[in-house]
Amino acid sequence: MSRRFEELAWAGTRMGEVSLRRRLEPVTRRQVYEVKLGEEFLMSSLFTAAEEAMADLALDWLSRSGATVLVGGLGLGYTAVAALRHEGVARVDVVETLEPVVDWHRERLLPCSDELLEDARTSLVLADFFAVAAGTQEAPGLRPPYDCVLLDIDHAPDFVLDESHQGFYSPAGLTRLLDLLAPGGVFALWSDRPPDHTFTGVLDSVFDRARAEVVRFANPLTGGTSANTVYLARTSS
What we know:
By secondary structure, this protein is an alpha/beta fold. Helix content is 24%, strand content 38%. The strands form 2 sheets. The protein has a 7-stranded mixed beta sheet with strand order 7-6-5-8-9-11-10, sandwiched between helices. Helix 1 runs parallel beside helix 2 (78-84). The longest helix is centred in the first third of the chain and has 14 residues, at 49-62.
């Protein structure tokens, strides 16, 4: 492989064709794993710093031993693995709506699949996170309330993958999320865009405290830095 890619797997889903591919990145000389939904890139193993930082920021703020974590969106698995690396975490339940993504991990096709699946604290649940949060879908295997909910599915609160997700980011949608969180629990959300003060205000209207953190990381393709946003919100104790 040079600039060409190797397609490892693909499947049709209700959201369109999803595919997993691997290529040798010519600048870094590293193997990169990428997931596409149709023609849209969903995730890449080249840039995982912010999704890992999301787990660290949330769990450091929670500062609670025996914490239970719900991850919305399995993806390449980096957010869930970052949570598992915290010794105080007792359980990590991961909700993923795309069955092929779950299958790829179970087939050990991704770099962190082994670490994810060989940890007895991990549980993978096939369900729609947004439907679960809205209370319109039951997901056997989930055990709310959770001390921490980590969400990395859409590109940003105002840039969603599916129109059905949009209501979640409203005051009403986030209020329903509280049913999944324990008192003093932390909600964290990854975003590909700069902080949106309007959305931070929405979080403030629902949660006891909220803030946006900019996570900067080296970009080997540009030789500079890039940034994502992590929104953090905490319920009252």
